[in-house]
Amino acid sequence: MNPANLNRRLKTYIEILVVSTRLGLTSFGGPTAHLGYFHAEYVRRRKWMDEKSYADLVALSQFLPGPASSQVGIGIGVMRAGVIGGIISFLGFTLPSVIALILFAGLLTKMDIGNAGWIHGLKLVAVAVVAHAILGMAKNLTPDVTRKTIALLALIGTLLWQSAWTQVGVILIAALVGFLLFKQHKEETEAKSTFPITKRVSAICLLLFAGLLVVLPILRELTGSVWIAMIDSFYRSGSLVFGGGHVVLPLLEQEFVPTGWISKESFLAGYGATQAVPGPLFTFAAYLGTVMKGWQGGLVATFAVFLPAFLLILGALTFWDSLRNNPKVKGAIMGVNAAVIGILISAFYYPIWTTSVLQASDFVLAAVLFSMLAYWKLPPWMVVVAGAVGGMGLSFI
């Protein structure tokens, strides 16, 4: 590689690291809010990808088990700069909360920060960010009455019947409905994305994902190693989760509380601490691993719980263009994209709105934050700072 290409690639890596780390430090509010932050930064501000490619990547992440927002972040990094770009994007977005939870694993169990004013302000930031993202995405993904109806039905289904499998069922039904209704739909141009990885690498990732699910439990029984047992439990939990970070909590509780690896009180305290830090909820594994085996355990747990998501998104991306441009699949994707809008609105109401907007002053601050983002075009990190300061101010009213 000549020096000019090397310098260009290094600049790209540094840019991905800086942007993803800033998002990792400021993205509060859970997976739905993260998608809003990503949309504002990567699509609207930096234009690293177009609206359709972003929507299709979100739809793909909804199909796959694991943390959807992390998979979208990894996918964007891969599209920008290959596998290394995906790794850098993941590390930037994830490490801030991992480090915070490892450092404060013992301390946070003794602190009641859940009711702090700045925490409440950050929840209101999530309200503004998600509302802005939904409005922007809905304009493109639900342009007609049919797709608006699909979004409405998806909203109703996911809001009234909340379970780990409801979202998967809604997406599958929407894919079938979209296939039937839009199979004759034609677009002027095909969607094209650049994935600097080969199909062979993708196939290896998918085989490795399935192989570890089989091999790790066997190794656990054969070796009796506590470390292998930890990796197996976290890897399996990260592999079987549909519906976002909140769904992984009962799986992790089932793995570690009944076995006595961690007390229920410590588990719940750590969950509260995880809500107070930015980034993906899956970083709760860092807290659990640290409580059980020190900082080394925190790093191992984080690696194990996120590894399935990484293998799946790398395995699926190279096949995504051929699938989404297939006439038989396009209609299904249109249905899924419409359903994603309904799912996002559902998550916007619960838990984001119901746990954040509790009185008139909360609504006022959320409206101001929304205006900063949508009308005054201020960068998301400034909105986060304003939300934290505003939340502290509300606590004195």
Automatic annotation (TrEMBL):
<keyword id="KW-0472">Membrane</keyword>
<protein>
    <submittedName>
        <fullName>Chromate transporter</fullName>
    </submittedName>
</protein>
<feature type="transmembrane region" description="Helical">
    <location>
        <begin position="201"/>
        <end position="219"/>
    </location>
</feature>
<feature type="transmembrane region" description="Helical">
    <location>
        <begin position="332"/>
        <end position="352"/>
    </location>
</feature>
<keyword id="KW-1003">Cell membrane</keyword>
<feature type="transmembrane region" description="Helical">
    <location>
        <begin position="84"/>
        <end position="108"/>
    </location>
</feature>
<dbReference type="InterPro" id="IPR003370">
    <property type="entry name" value="Chromate_transpt"/>
</dbReference>
<comment type="similarity">
    <text>Belongs to the chromate ion transporter (CHR) (TC 2.A.51) family.</text>
</comment>
<dbReference type="InterPro" id="IPR014047">
    <property type="entry name" value="Chr_Tranpt_l_chain"/>
</dbReference>
<feature type="transmembrane region" description="Helical">
    <location>
        <begin position="150"/>
        <end position="181"/>
    </location>
</feature>
<feature type="transmembrane region" description="Helical">
    <location>
        <begin position="120"/>
        <end position="138"/>
    </location>
</feature>
<dbReference type="Pfam" id="PF02417">
    <property type="entry name" value="Chromate_transp"/>
</dbReference>
<keyword id="KW-1133">Transmembrane helix</keyword>
<keyword id="KW-0812">Transmembrane</keyword>
<feature type="transmembrane region" description="Helical">
    <location>
        <begin position="298"/>
        <end position="320"/>
    </location>
</feature>
